Prior knowledge:
The structure holds two protein chains of two kinds. By secondary structure, chain A is an all-beta fold.
Amino acid sequence: QSVLTQPPSASVTPGQRVTISCSGSSSNIGSHAVNWYQHLPGTAPKLLIYNNNQRPSGVPDRFSGSKSGTSASLAISGLQSEDEADYYCAAWDDSLNGVLFGGGTKLTVL
Amino acid sequence: QVHLVGSGGGVVQPGRSLRLSCAASTLIFSVYDMHWVRQAPGKGLEWVAVISYDGNNKYYVDSVKGRFTISRDTSKNTLYLQMNGLRPEDTAVYYCARPGMSLTVTDARNYWGQGTLVTVSS
């Protein structure tokens, strides 16, 4: 079964750095680019990273993405209270012939 | 920039049907592959379906295959999701989207509707 696995939660203090992992397989991350989204309740998801490590215009360089093999990571440095949100990775999956979202990571800024 | 406005959600009994619509603000809509993504209460984002820019290619998550149909009317700049045989587990906020992802590439073109709530309950 194709899945993208993320840690369900992460807690950090302001100013610190956090890395959120996304583990997949050869049919998804291993073969396709990864996107990362930030989602706040009641709002549309915001695209933070596309094509593994590219930032859309307007996304601060505190956010960075990387991919190696069948895993990807989102790093956020200089954490701020406004970064408290749910974060999702996503990639196309050849086995499903569709898009897979990770289960999401709830980031808490203490 | 593309502005998307979703509509058509509501409360429906199990087994019944509902059609969601998503109106786009610009003709550029016609060149984009478009998706439906949902979020059940207390759950994460789940991709539902995608349709190619020309309507010729459609893909669905396994749980909705045979029950949901994605379509588009380019003349009306509108995306649709026909949902038949609805189940309680289909209860979710449904987003139409071009989520920085087409059928072939990922890019920065990230557009989402405001979400429309579908509740399946007797």
